[in-house]
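Duplicate of #3305? Posting structure anyway:
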């Protein structure tokens, strides 16, 4: 390969250092010519040296970063059979609604008076029970007697367990029935002992509230203590719910007539229950004012007519008449 292909600037440092090598070639008269093979070897060595100087220095590797590993995840703690309560069994859940009649925070038990009946249900609860108050997550400290609740119940062994309890503090519009405890005409506050929960509830009687008794319009003066009433109220807008209509069912000293079949008899307490046909309701009637001879034919299933007086807390019979059963005809036998 001709040496002339490796051309350097004449004034470059490399050219100055190699000048003695080329002097024999450029000035053959003064020096002996240098072997072309030696010149070529030196040029190749020079090119390799220049290439090595132009290469970037390698970046030292970080052995610590290479040794890094992903942090190990901690396995979740397992269920401790000695300290933790057992998980709830997957059983059928029943929803009930009612009023808290009794609360035992020591034994973790609550008794609920179910809506529409006199039945009371006692159930247990613990840390596995979920509590909600007006739709928001809550705890058992918010549970108090007299509150309206809805409960998801299930059997835990042989006992009833409350899986979820919904507490309602904002009662919707609805009906109530009970006994008048007091009425304050100054501010229109009516205190009523609820028939189901036996807890006092306060309502507001407005000037527009209608009072009736047996389809006749009455005044608020008829709301005497001891009177049995049913009322319709709206949603709570102030301190108390406003009553739109009050029906006076009975006042102390009022007389009533009942007719229907006897559904319950307890002569030791002088008490019977009668399914009254006119209003399709069942009433407890006390017979303590009647002689035992008048009760000789009173049995469960008998059809009777009773005249009673409401004394402010119960109905007391003044007379009772048993309707004779119709004898069977030959065609019925």
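Output from current build:
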């Amino acid at each position: 390969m001709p040496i002339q292909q490796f051309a350097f600037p004449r004034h470059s440092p490399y050219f100055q250092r190699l000048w003695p090598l080329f002097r024999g070639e450029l000035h053959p008269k003064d020096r002996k010519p240098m072997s072309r093979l030696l010149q070529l070897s030196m040029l190749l060595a020079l090119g390799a040296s220049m290439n090595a100087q132009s290469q970037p220095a390698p970046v030292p590797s970080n052995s610590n970063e290479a040794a890094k590993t992903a942090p190990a995840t901690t396995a979740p703690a397992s269920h401790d059979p000695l300290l933790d309560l057992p998980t709830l069994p997957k059983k059928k859940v029943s929803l009930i609604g009612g009023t808290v009649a009794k609360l035992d925070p020591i034994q973790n038990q609550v008794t609920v008076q179910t809506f529409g009946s006199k039945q009371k249900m006692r159930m247990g609860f613990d840390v596995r029970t979920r509590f909600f108050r007006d739709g928001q997550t809550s705890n058992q400290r918010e549970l108090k007697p007299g509150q309206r609740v809805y409960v998801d119940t299930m059997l835990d062994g042989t006992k009833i367990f409350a899986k979820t309890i919904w507490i309602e503090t904002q009662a919707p519009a609805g009906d109530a029935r009970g006994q008048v405890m007091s009425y304050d005409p100054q501010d229109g506050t009516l205190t009523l002992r609820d028939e189901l929960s036996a807890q006092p509830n306060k309502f507001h009687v407005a000037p527009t509230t209608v009072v009736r008794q047996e389809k006749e319009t009455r005044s608020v003066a008829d709301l005497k203590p001891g009177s049995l009433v049913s009322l319709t109220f709206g949603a709570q807008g102030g301190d108390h719910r406003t009553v739109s209509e009050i029906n006076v069912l009975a006042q102390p000293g009022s007389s009533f007539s009942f007719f229907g079949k006897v559904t319950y008899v307890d002569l030791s307490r002088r008490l019977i229950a009668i399914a009254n046909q006119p209003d399709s309701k069942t009433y407890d009637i006390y017979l303590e004012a009647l002689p035992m001879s008048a009760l000789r034919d009173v049995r469960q299933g008998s059809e009777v007519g009773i005249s009673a007086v409401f004394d402010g807390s119960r109905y007391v019979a003044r007379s009772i008449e048993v309707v004779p059963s119709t004898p069977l005809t030959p065609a019925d036998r």
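Confirmed duplicate; merging threads. Residues 36-54 form the longest helix (19 residues). The CA atoms of residues 9 and 47 lie 15 Å apart.
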